[in-house]
Amino acid sequence: MKINQFSEQIYDQEDLINLVMAGHDVNQYPDMLVNHTVDLETAALILEHVPTFVRYDEAARDSMTQEQFDRRCQSRWYMPQEYQGLDIAAHVLSLCQTDQELQRAGQELLLFQERDLFNLLRYLKFLVDVLRANRCIWGVGRGSSVASYVLYLLGVHRINSLYYDLDPQEFLR
User: Fold this and answer.
1) How are the residues of the chain apportioned to helix, strand and coil, as percentages rounded to the nearest 5?
2) How deeply is 96 buried, as exposed, middle or buried, from its count of CB atoms within 10 A (0-12, 13-18, 19+)?
3) Angle formed by the axes of helices 118-133 and 66-75, to 10°?
4) Beta bridge partners of 44
5) pLDDT, position 38
6) pTM
7) Alpha carbon distance 81, 78 (integer Å)
8) pLDDT for residue 18 is more than 50
9) Backbone angles phi, psi at 159, to 5 degrees
10) Are the C-beta atoms of residues 11 and 33 closer than 8 Å to each other?
11) Pairs from 151-155 (Cβ < 8 Å, separation ≥ 24)
12) Residues 6+ apart with CB under 8 A from 119
């Protein structure tokens, strides 16, 4: 197995055989990156049918910038349809109770929108809902993320940045 500059695992034919022999169902990993030199016809004989691997083209991937890689990854997050279509701005604003909260949330939402991060907010809403539904415990909050009132409203952390007068620019640097 090879690791590229983005820390993605690239599997070759021997890796696939080893996974199958160890009892792993490689067909459960549709986004598995497989080296472009792997002969999928031979792999089909070994794996019984051709999985839906993503072919890894080293030359194309190596020319990708970090920003392009991040955009590609963000577009492939698993998120149920109900969250993908969620008007996250309206949802966040509906959680506000005072004019001061509305103003702060609106200001932060504009910053998130400028950075094209609404999908991230949708995913965080989904993640927090899953954590709550499964009665998981997560931290109170740490680092610069606690400066975001929007993340507080979504339940990502429990530090009210309005109460402590934390600057949202600290988070979105």
Assistant:
1) 55, 5, 40
2) middle
3) 50
4) none
5) 64
6) 0.65
7) 9
8) yes
9) -105, 115
10) yes
11) 151/124, 153/92, 153/95, 153/96, 153/105, 154/92, 154/95, 154/121, 154/124, 154/125, 154/128, 155/128
12) 74, 75, 77
Residues 24-58, buried b or exposed e (16+ Cβ, 10 A)?
eebeeeeebbbbeebeeeebeeebeeebebeebee
CA dist., res. 63 & res. 61, Å (int) = 5
Asked whether residue 166 carries a pLDDT value surpassing 80, the answer given is yes
Q: In this structure, what are the phi and psi dihedrals at residue 132, rounded to the nearest 5 degrees?
A: -65, -45
Separation of alpha carbons 70 and 68, rounded Å: 5
Which has the higher per-residue pLDDT, 138 or 40? 138
* Residues 71/30/52/35 CA torsion (nearest 10 deg): 70
Please give the structure tokens belonging to residue 30.
Answer: 């549709």
Contact 119, 77 (CB under 8 A): yes
Tokens of 116: 């094209």
Token duo for residue 85: 């279509």
Q: pLDDT tens-digit profile of 115-125?
A: 989 999 999 99
